[in-house]
Design brief:
Blueprint lengths: L10 H6 L3 E6 L6 H12 L1 E5 L18 H6 L2 E2 L12 H17 L3 E6 L2 H8 L10 H14 L1 H11 L1 H6 L5 H14 L3 H4 L6 H4 L1 E8 L2 H17 L2 H8 L14 H8 L5 H24 L5 E4 L6 H12 L1
Parallel strand pairs: 1-4, 1-5, 2-3, 2-4, 5-6
The structure holds one RNA strand of 72 nucleotides.
RNA sequence: GCCGAGGUAGCUCAGUGGUAGAGCGCGGCCCUGAAAAGGCCGGCGUGGGGGGUCCGAUUCCCUCCCUCGGCA
């Protein structure tokens, strides 16, 4: 039998012998993909992407999917699984990820989740409250009301039906106010109650989470370098091809689409568009870090800017065994 | 060289005789079916240099420096 992952058993776990799930997360451009492949080989894992944008088929360069070389070394899942014309969301991701995980378990392998989407990670580890899918008509109506009367008006309504949620959601955060009202309208229950009902991998698995980190200045440099590389590798052609599609709203949020659109509309030069993309990605990395920082279960892996991926993988592996 | 406009936050620029703001950037934070999204908080400043008037100047005056435009 291939060496399977043995985690150091803590007192509580020793009797249960929970299956394990490993997460390798971190902001963009820290080198997750390469490190993940080395790590996966060492622990007998298959990789499940934990990225909200790499799920789209026609978007490879723009989302920095792992290279073909890497894909050949270890089985990867949930990359390019839907058309960029389709909407995608957390719950769909969760269903697909859990199903994939079961298949991997059947093969006697360990699931290694790799990506930078904090919410997707949390929804796996901690769970999601299950309710019916979004109700588009209710939602549309609520947005219309928000437009007419302002988000404060909706927030006041939320305060009446679900004070707890209203306290948590800022009165300007239209998106979450609408969602909370929508849930109440369609289920008759306050979202704040439903949200307490969640079960995730943390309840059934021995979950290990590793987050890569490096000084922000180094990270920004790496981001810039990667953006330059993306352009060299045909980013513009890829995005030009995307224009022939009817991109879904969710896919359209990928960093770079708006910027290149601006270029084609003559609002800026290509270099300016590239600079805007770099900036947007720096900001994105910052938000990612904020998300990960608050999760106290995370074990941080400080990566040297020139440290070989294999070495990083080794360090993580040592923490696992 | 002359004329004109201007030098205020990292950038673009407001404003005021009582030591300054906005947008963007930058930093921190929030996040349960849009999350590479959305929202919140923070001014981060030798107000070009020097001198003068004034109780008090970033604001008024003088001078020097710099930038931009026009004329030479």
């Amino acid at each position: 039998m291939r060496k399977s992952l043995r985690l150091k058993a803590t007192p509580q776990e020793s009797s249960h012998n929970k299956p394990s799930a490993v997460f390798l997360v971190g902001p963009t451009a820290t080198g997750k993909s390469r490190i993940a492949v080395f790590l996966a080989r060492k622990i007998g894992a298959e990789i499940i992407s934990c990225d909200s944008m790499q799920v789209y088929k026609q978007m490879s360069i723009i989302t920095s999917k792992p290279s073909a070389v890497l894909l050949k070394k270890v089985p990867h899942h949930l990359l390019g699984v839907v058309s960029a014309e389709q909407e995608y969301d957390v719950s769909r991701y969760r269903r697909q990820a859990l199903a994939t995980m079961r298949q991997i378990a059947e093969r006697g392998k360990v699931p290694l989740f790799v990506g930078g989407t904090g919410l997707y990670m949390s929804i796996l580890v901690d769970g999601i409250f299950k309710e019916k899918t979004p109700h588009p008509r209710t939602r549309a109506l609520l947005y219309k009301q928000a437009q007419q009367h302002g988000s404060g008006y909706l927030h006041a309504r939320l305060r009446k039906i679900d004070p707890e949620a209203a306290l948590k959601i800022h009165s300007h955060d239209t998106r979450r106010i609408v969602r909370a009202l929508e849930v109440f309208k369609t289920t008759g229950r306050p979202i704040s109650h439903l949200q307490k009902e969640r079960k995730g991998l943390a309840d059934t698995h021995a979950v290990k989470i590793f987050c890569l980190s490096m000084p922000k200045a180094d990270l920004d440099r790496r981001i810039d370098r990667r953006l330059d590389e993306m352009f060299r590798h045909g980013l513009v052609d890829e995005v030009r091809a995307l224009r022939r599609l009817r991109l879904s709203r969710t896919a359209a949020y990928a960093i770079g689409l708006k910027e290149l659109q601006g270029y084609w509309e003559g609002a800026c030069s290509l270099d300016e568009a590239k600079a805007l993309m770099k900036r947007a990605t720096h900001q994105y990395a910052r938000r990612q870090l904020t998300w990960f920082r608050k999760d106290k279960r995370i074990q941080w892996i400080a990566v040297g800017s020139a440290e070989p991926p294999r070495q990083v993988a080794d360090r993580i592996w040592k923490k696992l065994s």
